[in-house]
Input
Amino acid sequence: MTDSRLRCALVYRLEGINKPPTSTATFGIDDDDVGVRALEMGTVSSAITDAVILAKFDYAKDYELSGGSASTTELYGGRDKGFAEAVQQVILGDPPTMPSLAGGGEANLGACKVVNSEAHKVVYGANGDGLCFAVIAGSQYTSRIAILMLIELEETFTKKFGVMPSTAAPNSMSNSASSIMKTICKKYDDPANVDKTKELLGKVEEVKGTMADNIAMILENTDKVEDLAEKSTVLTDQATEFQKKSKQLKKNMWWKDMKMTLLVGLVVCLLLLVILWPILSKVGSSDKDDS
Output
């Protein structure tokens, strides 16, 4: 069944590892030793002869003694082998890269490896003390998250048990390590809970969406501002024209009023002259007669 569920966590001790002289180290694969891989920091391990299971935790409880048919669980050895033995074969077939082999030194994981089957995947990596940490998950489970889980498991496991794994008997630490393995498996069961990259990308997309909306709004507002500026210019021109016409109209009205006033004055003068002329003429005639 193809899914994205976390299945099992395992811890192995790699046997047959010797620290090689770094001055004569070479990179690449020795054709005479199957499974020998070039190590980081310019060192190469000797052949890994065995991977001893120290602790295992079946988080999904559906592999040990209950494997499916060989066609669906080929990676894990089919119905007759448990998941621990199947992963052991994977590790021996393609040993993990280790950062250093100085026991007791820094126990950080080297480059992790991913092996896929039709329905599942195994992700595993080893530290400088020869401990190999592995996880089985559904084929759709994010490998990057599985590697983050292994890093945390390695750090927690080595911090709690120190040098004990170097001499521990096979499968003797499952009970003592079950609590930390269960806690870590539960934490990483849902990749969304720990996938900070996905969360960050989601925030980036959200910010991009917000910025796009803001840019669109700015452009829209810019168009509106330009439209308002154009309308303002038109109104200013219209106001200037109106002011000119108002002055001209005022001037015209003033001349019109002045003409009307002069005309009325002239009419009044004429009326007075018509009215007063006969009277003045009679008065003038009477004065002549008296004299």
Summary: The chain has a mean pLDDT of 77. The CA atoms of residues 96 and 125 lie 5 Å apart. Residues 6-194 form a domain with the Beta-Lactamase fold (CATH 3.30.450.50). The first strand starts at residue 6 and ends at 15.
